[in-house]
């Protein structure tokens, strides 16, 4: 049975680590220093009192959140091991040897990452990098100086991660249609350490059949997140219906009704085109089709995508355009009603890219919905019907900045080219105009009206 | 490219797709093609080369003497584990993105891993045939008559197969955990070192660490190889070889009258008087002793005693013991494969 003494010792470990009284005083001073420092950085000073968590908050002040997570976890692990050692440690035992080895490894990681955090703090406070030595040796001293001296001011504040996203919402809900794609995404979030991160919010649209839609947005705007939410691969708090059927509720069925072509050509290079398509057909086509029907379908799709001349070639020997067409053909086998393509023209020259897009236009004209992400839209913009513009709001959440026809988009943004539109909604530090919030709010009002 | 597309309407009511068993054979077929195209066939000549090298070292000792059998069992375990590990350490991680794509297209992870299990079993079987054939033609002296089956080469072949298959499945598990081939090849040496060091075969483990060896496939391979060679019934040459190494070394000792009296049953008082109570310097070699007691007698005595000292209860040649090792190896193989399925089910959570 653990004794009271052991519990007290464990508690001391939790708050101060394995230290003597003098060191405990220094840690208390560090907490006082961090109190002031956190206040300066625009976060709650009280966090300085929370063991482990204060390291994470300090890292956020330094703009090194990733390092903060590592230090938080390593701190937690090393302290847990130390406490475990109090209760079970028999000196010289194998268990103690293992615990010591793990502790040494964890502490080494912790030291390296703590140095990275100190360097981040030096950047934020505009101080010489040599300060990291003091932060590493006697953290209480720089914490007190940086926390309370007026000469030490941070160049930026910590984002309040508990704050909500841009609070202009469309308050829209589009009724599901019998035909076409209806998207009602309330939010798509992911747990992110001590917070819940919004990746997407308030996206509502209806895409009619036979549409070819361009999905535009700067990097990190949430384009891939949006298409994954639409096809049900990464579910959002949303209501997505395709031709009257709920994608999430009927996921197994809809799996074969939605074709997603990833950006990379994810196929086995040492397999032939025919074998690749045969295997894809075996996976995607209904079981009730006869082997002959399946063979015919494969032949037919190879014909549609111009792959018959290379059907016995290895995938690794195909040109970029052929590989891309094969990748699309694999999804096309099951005759999906919704086709989503992530940068299908990447790595293709202008002529090949246009030929590919024309083929996608023909697919759309056959009654399907085709959504395309591309970073070079202007050379093929005449082939698209509609445009979706996604933008990161000031809280870095992906929001709908526009959905409508190309001409309407040009009018809405006051820009002629698609590249200008992307530039308008991109953040200033990304070389854009930083007008995302403005357009998001304007479009939300338009939608609401 | 054609200008117009005539798309046939597929029957939308039929939504049943291929089940696990059917997918298993689709992937199995794919892997058999890869055997030729993706150079997996190179595992066979590699197995022959490794077996040939090992045969040169073990052919004079395996199934002949205790120490030779011990070394031979360890070497055969190493061969089997090496072959198994290299067969599959990269197979999953190198196509992880493809698996992710296929998984979202309806591929069952269990079918994918089961097809690997089937394919890797075939590969291990072929490697075992090549290994056993190479050992046989290299002159490794297996007994002809088997203990479990009518042929010893088949008995040992089963152990080689199961040991390499269990190692193969362990590598498949590692390959399902790591994201890149570089990470897989970094983990691989740790895996091999852990297996061989903690098998408790070649290195004596402290008693507190011995239970770890129960969780290594190498241990069961080693025990099976040693048991099948009837380790405990063989003679141990090590003791006599050590004596032979130092037989002409001169040994100097100072003996007192009491020491001599104790060894010779002479009267100590008489000896003390004769030697004036001073110690006497003696110089002799072990050869002198062997001549005195008779070389053959000494050799026999030393061999019998060292053989008795080196008897290992783990290596007892019983059907139960060998079946137990085989069962454990099969159990490990299936457990690793099961874990690989469970872990790979989370592939959708891979970061983009």
Quick rundown:
Chain A is α/β, with parallel strands linked by helices and 449 residues long. Chain A has 16 helices and ten strands. Mean pLDDT of chain B is 88; it is low at 1-14.
Structure description:
The complex is a heterodimer of chains A (449) and B (352). Chain A has 16 helices and 10 strands. Chain A has 449 residues and is of the alpha/beta class. Chain A has 2 domains: 4-148, no CATH class; 181-257 and 336-448, Rossmann fold (3-Layer(aba) Sandwich), CATH 3.40.50.300. Chain A has a 10-stranded mixed β-sheet, sandwiched between helices. In chain A, helix 1 packs antiparallel against helix 4 (65-88), helix 2 runs parallel beside helix 7 and helix 5 (94-124) runs antiparallel to helix 6. The longest helix of chain A has 31 residues, at 94-124. Chain A is globular. In chain B, helix 2 runs antiparallel to helix 3 (66-88) and helix 3 (66-88) crosses helix 6 (152-177). Chain B has helices at residues 20-37, 43-58, 66-88, 96-104, 109-137, 152-177, 181-197, 210-213, 217-228, 238-245, 257-264, 268-275, 286-293, 295-309, 319-344; strands at residues 250-255, 280-285. A two-stranded antiparallel sheet of chain B has the order 1-2. Chain B is 64% helix and 3% strand. Chain B has 2 domains: 20-235 and 312-349, no CATH class; 239-306, no CATH class. Chain B starts with 19 loop residues before the first helix and ends in an 8-residue tail after the last helix. The chains are: A alpha/beta (449), B mainly alpha (352). Chain A binds chain B through residues 93-94, 224, 233-234, 253, 255-256, 260, 262, 264, 266-268, 270-271, 275, 279-280, 282-289, 297, 300, 303-306, 314, 330-331, 334-335, 355, 358-359, 362-363, 366, and chain B through 1-5, 7-11, 14-19, 22-23, 26-27, 29-30, 33-34, 37-38, 95, 97-98, 100-102, 104-107, 206, 208-209, 348, 352.
